[in-house]
Structure formats: structure tokens, C-alpha cells
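Curious: can you check?
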Amino acid sequence: MTDPARFIEDALPRLRSEIPGRALVAASGGIDSTAAAILTQRAVGDRARAIFVDTGLLREGEVARVRALFEANGLRYEVLDAAARFFEALDGIVDPEEKRRRIGATFIRLFEIEADRFGTDRLVQGTIAPDWIESGGSLRDTIKTHHNVGGVPPDSRLRLVEPLRDLYKDEIRALARALGIAEPDRQPFPGPGLAVRVNGLVTPERVQRARVANRIVEEEVERAFRAGTMPRPWQYFAVLLPTRTVGVMGDNRVHGEAVSVRIVESSDAMTATAATPPPSVLKTIAERITRELSGEIVRVLYDVTDKPPATIEWE
């Protein structure tokens, strides 16, 4: 995509032809799905309805942030509280691919119910090129199954509409600017949420630890950026590891969990370089995580691996 304005001009009639009646939009609040939702509403007006699902796997304050974003852009939307359903689907699951498949299937089953209520079989998704490329198929190996691609059950009765399917993240950000979406350069957040930043079992307690650690990483990186001590990275977050490790509090032994901090630079999410933040930033992050999650997190590591060989998210 070389011209966002031309892309918008071409996308609107395509959407009208693909949506003869009503449509739901799977809207996570990320740049991809928000752009898809705005395009769809411009194309078919009140025949589109955005659905934001609170999975219980979101970052701190995410629901309020998404509400404000949608209202600022005039989107018609509903919020579904489905945390219990997602934790039930993930109960006992540790394999990353199975997590993604179950999350994708849970989303689709929820959207099927809402589609019946709304009288449609069309579901608009913010799928972009890296999603289907990494999900494999044809001659491509599966790097990781994206929940909105490989997580769609084969028996789903919904017909997917994916207006951004051939775009990469840098193109999506240019499109978001043309659509007037606030903060088009904000860091990506995975569709499966904190489930893929909780290595191993996904429980409400472990998700909450990951949520606190992610908030601290974001706050400290953004503070350093505002102070001019480091550039704003592409993505910065924490991963709760599936291992326990020994720590010490006073004279007492503590057996807690470990967190890995991930900060990367990228332009399109297909490749990434591990950032080199100031040691003082990493030290503050480690001190805050172990203090605010005292006795729960006793060790903080820093991931220095590029993509490739690693992916940006751990799962």
C-alpha cells in the first residue's frame, strides 16, 4: 500500500459488496481491528456493530482505554464480559499452539451467538499479512497459529471479511493516521492477550502477576522515553515464565516465579531487534516487579534475542 487515501477509497466499495446485509466486527481495540471497524462503519453505516470482548486476559485499564478509543472515533460497539468462558477454555492447557486454537475457537463461538442476535453471518476481522503468513498453510511452515486464522474452527458458520489482509503493520499505522485514529504508533498487543505472556498454565492468579509486571515495564519504558534517556521501542512487555526459582526475603527462603522482560525494535513485526535500554531502566523495572509482587516474583531476566531466531512474543 503506497497511498492510504487510495486504499480507503478502494476498500469501501469492496466492503459493501462483501457485506450485503449486516456485519459484526471483532474489535480488540488494537490498531488493526480498529481500522477495520472504522472502514466497515464508513462502508455500511449502522449495519455494522463492533464487539469488544473482555477476555479477562487484558492489560490493566484496557477496557476503559478501548471504550475511550471507540467513542472518540464514533464507533458503535458493545462490550462482552467473557472472562469465565476463556479461563474455562484454557484450564489445564500449557501448549502454546493449543492455547491459541482454544482462544480463537472461544472468540468465534461467542461471535456466532452475537451474529444470530444481530441477524448476520458476516464477521469482519482485522487480520493482517503476518497473521496468516506465520499461521502456515500451503507450502508455509507454521511459526505460530494466530488465533484469528488457525484458531477459527472449520465448522464455523461465519463468513470472514478481512479488508486488511494484505497489509503489514507499518502500512496499518499509515492507514490509521489517514483514518484519524488516535495513537497510531502505540505498541501492538497480542489478540490472545496475556494468555501468551503467561507461559505454562493460565490461571487468574498468574494472569494478574503478568498484568502487574506488564504495567510496570510499560510505565518505566514510557517514563524513560519522556525523559529522553531512550527512544520509544516498537514493543515492550513482560512474560511470566513456567518455572519456579529460589529467592530470599530477609533471612527467609522464598520459592517464587520469574519474569522475562522483552523490549524490541521493528517496523513490520516480521523481523525485530532486541533493544538495549539503559541499565538503570532495567534495574528499576526489576526492583519494582519484585517489590510490587513480593514473594510471588523473585527473579527478573532480560531477553536479548532478535527475531529471527526468536519470535517477538514468547508463545
Confidence is low (pLDDT under 50) at residues 136-140. Residues 4-179 form a domain with the Rossmann fold fold (CATH 3.40.50.620).
